[in-house]
Each structure stands twice: as structure tokens, then as C-alpha cells.
Amino acid sequence: MVTQIIFVCILAIVALQRCFELIRSKKNEALLKKQGGKEHAPRHFYIMVLIHTAWFVSMIIEVFLLRRSFYPNLFIIALSFSLLGNWFRYKSMQALQERWTIRIFTLPDAKPITSGIYQLVRHPIYLGVILEIAFIPLLHTAYLTSIIFSFANAILLKKRIREEELALDKNNNYQIVFQNKPRFLPKF
Q1: Alpha carbon of 1 to those of 63, 68, 69, 144: distances in Å?
Q2: How many other C-beta atoms can be found within 10 angstroms of the C-beta atom of residue 106?
Q3: Domains defined along the chain, listed by start
């Protein structure tokens, strides 16, 4: 029971972090709109919110109702990959600064961001999300949530990345700038 409470506390921290990100994103969206920014594929945002909300609920249900066991070694591995995912997300936000939003926005004729983590990969924030969705549930062996929502996230990201790259290419020369950068796994 103690490990379940710790797990819920970790989820509360992650949820709080997501709420702060929503607030920051809204500020950045307003700034981008003032500068002539355009939103693309707005329905993806609502689908993403639905998936992430269901992911949180699913983890709690699986851990408590299915009485998932706690394995310290799995916890350490899952925590390591979850923190790595969080690091990728943070580094992406840091590099994009006020151009970072949860929704897909482009700023016409602005040069694509190629500094920071974007020197290594095209989509570090999505890499972070992939890691978090897969590994946060495994902190308390919620493997069904990990599998189901990793699959749902993969379907969403396939569509979202396509839309985002098309918008960036149309408005910001994205393909030319990032033609030699991998999407997720860095080349060293």
C-alpha cells in the first residue's frame, strides 16, 4: 500500500507538471498569434488530451484494482527512462523558448530552431513523451497501461508528426534544414 501511495504522489507531480506546461503553452500561443503564428491540425490537441487523461486514469485503475506488485529493480529502470523522457521534453522546451506550444503552431518565415537538443534529433519532445508514456506506468508494474497507451500514442504521433512537418516545411523550410537529422534517435 505504501508503494501505491508513492506511485500516486509521483503521478500527481507529473500531472502538476503537465498543468504548468498547459499554462506556458497558452502564453506562448498568444504571443505567436500576435506575431502572425498559425495553428495547424487543432483536433490533434483534443485527442492528445484525451489520451493523456485516460493514461493517468488507467495507471491508477491498473495499480489499485488489479493490485499490481511493486518490483524495486523495475522501478529503478522505469524511473531512469521516465527521467530521461522528462529531460528530452525539458530540453526541447528550453531550445524552443516562446515558440514551444503543445498545439502545432508555425511562425511563417521564421527560421527553424536548430540549437540545443535540436542539433541531435528533429523531435526530442516526442521522444520524451514516448519514453514517459511507456515507462511511468512501469514504476508500479502497470504494464497493460504501458502497452495500450504506447500503441495509442504511436498512432497519434504518426499523424501529428506528419502534420507538424508539413506545416513547418510549408512555412519554415523545415525539410531543407532537417534533412540529415533523425526523427528520434540521435546520431553521434
Answers
A1: 10, 10, 10, 20
A2: 23
A3: 2-178 (1.20.120.1630)
